[in-house]
Amino acid sequence: MSLQSQVDELGARLSDLIRRLSECGYVFDRPEAVLPGPDPRAAEVIDRISREVGPVPEALALFWLRVGSVDLSGSHPDWKEPAQCLDQLIVFPASLALYHLEDDEGGHLEYDLPFQIVVAPDELHKANTSGGPPYSVSVPSEGIDPPLNNSSEAETFLEHIDRALRFGGFPGLAGCQDHGWPLDSLKC
Q1: For residue range 160-171, what is the model confidence (pLDDT) as tens digits?
Q2: What is the pTM of this model?
Q3: In whole angstroms, how far apart are CA 101 and each of 27, 34, 48, 90, 108?
Q4: What is the pLDDT of residues 47-70, one digit of tens each?
Q5: Domains plus CATH for the chain?
């Protein structure tokens, strides 16, 4: 399967999951950010990072261009919150990557190499608890689907999204028995 097909399949699975969550009565914290589609500036951001720092990993670039961003933060009034973090799936939009590349006036910031494209908060920050460094990918990167930095699992960017989808968008539920979430109906 080509990388583009892989990204498109993940996008279709995300759409299906969001439909399922909505049908179950899940309430998204920011409905406008759930799956808004590609950022209008995605191509411009990818080009700028590629020129100034190095090539944006192809898997991330395709995700930004074809799927966009996702934020599954929210809750359900009847689902028991587990003792551990949900680690809900979040992928920031492409335009947020510029935040770490430029200052408030659009000037160039100093940064260490490899440059880190922040793609999501870590699982503790997602639970509104002080945590560690955010999930990120390095530029330059290793391969077309780079390792996801700071994840509790050794996985690539796309593997993280796939794993999240296999746990209904909440990979923190893996191995967790103290929840009332209908995972069987949410897994995709």
Answers
A1: 999 999 999 988
A2: 0.91
A3: 33, 25, 9, 20, 6
A4: 999 998 899 999 999 999 999 999
A5: 3-186 (3.40.1580)
